[in-house]
Amino acid sequence: MSEPRKYKYIPEKYPERPEIKDLDKDKIVKMLLSAFADEILAYYSYLMMAYAIRGHISKELEETILEIGKDELEDHAKKLADRLQDFDVDPPDFRDLWQLSRCRYPDLPDDPH
Question: What value does the mean pLDDT take over residues 70-75?
Fold first, then answer.
């Protein structure tokens, strides 16, 4: 797994307050990287589910699942990527997402019925 580039806390945007002054910045960045990986993998999981659905209501379910996945990517992952940038950290390489993520998504069943 590749190492994230070095970062610094940007006090102009987020001035250090007494309640966060002693927080471990490395720990915060690791948590943000893990959460970002979770959101990207959630999007991927929803995308695969949407296209694996079969049956009489599959079109409606596909639209709903794609909308949920879109929220994971365009809202949650974007916010986390923006926060990582506040720490001068790039989002992780796609190949590292599975290792960074704390979530494991289930395999799709062979028989959907």
Answer: 91
